[in-house]
Amino acid sequence: MSDFPTELELLSLFESEPVLSDDTEEMPMYYKEAVYRFTNGEEDFVVHISPASEEVLIQVSKSDSGKMLSLLDLKKVNKFKILADQNDRSSVLLITENEETVISVQVDFKPYFKQIVKEEFLNR
């Protein structure tokens, strides 16, 4: 089972209500796809999170023009960590691990968008 934040932690981080794939109360949040839409004033974000299938998609566009700045589409996220959740600063760390490598992607949402990708080889 992957390591993802709780529904409450994601609400706090993104400061927006998600659109859920299944709005039934019986199904736990872990099995639903959640789509969060929010802005930092300069950039607009659309974040799709599917904890059960370990998928995360983050799309970033310029607020004034709508031009896409980044599209991050990860299919095997083992860990989703919140690094900062404050009024003026928010960021996450996404980690994908397999037998040979660990890929970490840090995404800063506030004060402005920044993305840092690192790959580490194992067993070398």
How would you describe the overall organization of this protein?
The structure is a single chain. This protein has one domain (7-121). Helices cover 6% and strands 52% of the residues. The protein has 1 helix and 9 strands, in the order αβββββββββ.
Count of discrete alpha- or pi-helical segments spanning 4 or more residues: 1
Order of helices and strands: HEEEEEEEEE
Strand order of the largest sheet: 1-2-3-4-5
Kindly provide the radius of gyration, computed on alpha-carbon positions and rounded to a whole number of angstroms.
15 Å
User: Could you estimate the helical fraction of the residues in percent?
Assistant: under 10%
What's this entry about, in short?
With 124 residues, the protein is mainly beta. It has one helix spanning 7-14; strands at 19-20, 34-39, 43-50, 55-62, 68-74, 79-85, 90-97, 101-110, 114-121. The protein is globular.
What are the main properties of this structure?
124 residues; mainly beta; five-stranded antiparallel sheet; four-stranded antiparallel sheet; 1 helix
List the helices and strands and how they pair.
Blueprint: H1 7-14, E1 19-20, E2 34-39, E3 43-50, E4 55-62, E5 68-74, E6 79-85, E7 90-97, E8 101-110, E9 114-121
